[in-house]
Specification:
Blueprint (H helix, E strand, L loop, with lengths): L17 H18 L6 H25 L6 H32 L9 H11 L9 H28 L7 H28 L19 H13 L8 H28 L5
Helix pairs in contact: 1-2, 1-8, 2-3, 3-5, 5-6, 6-7, 6-8
Amino acid sequence: MSYDCRSDQLSDIAKGSRRQVIVAGGIAGLISRYLGFWRGNLPAELLYVTYGATQFTTYRSISAILKPTALPPAVTSFISGAGAGAMATALTYPLDLLRTRFAAQGTRRVYGSVLGSFAQIARTEGLNGYFQGLGTGLGQVIPYMGLFFAVYEGLRPEMQDLRLPFGSGDAVAGTLASVVAKTGVFPLDLLRKRLQVQGPAREMFAEGQVPEYSQGAWQAGKTVVAREGWRGLYRGLSLSLLKAAPASAVTMWSYEAAVRILIKERWLV
């Protein structure tokens, strides 16, 4: 697949001005937030909008930088996706941590509000508390987003040739890319979420059922295998796919559609 901007098969991720990409990414994140079956809270709202705008803008920028290198398209997509995922994750990680912790609250409320949660983490865990599990998060998102965009960019032209209604080829490509990427890196995603609910309030999450992992991701992975077997690393995969696949479909379809509209109407040129 060519990355020449004149190609009709070029993903709209790499088209448009920087402002168009930022706006379209934010729209995609917001729409996927409401149609992707997530539990609602303010950190999640802020996370998906900010993450989407950052991810697509970074992907576009890295793709443009790599364009003259004549790398294979799949390699370019992987590197651009990995870089975009890393940048978006690092920038929005405190919101991702809060989303996980709010979702893990049981009948015993750990945090009463978003502002209160920021203050409590700063008081009890310090600055590092906002980035609990970041290393594992980056280790998960770099191969995940690399695989996702490599598969997506490879499948999208084939889906366009099928001439599916309402531009749904983007959604189908997004769904398949999400299933492949999520399955490939799910153990790291599981460890990231378990590490995010460590700290002084650990026993208050999930009705006190969160194990203690005090020595990082490697020790956490060994503990999971020892207690739950190798299948424990894939606990919850089916539910995660049921959430991630339609969310990715909505994200990619809405993003591509938003960019096409912004370009056609010459908005934010």
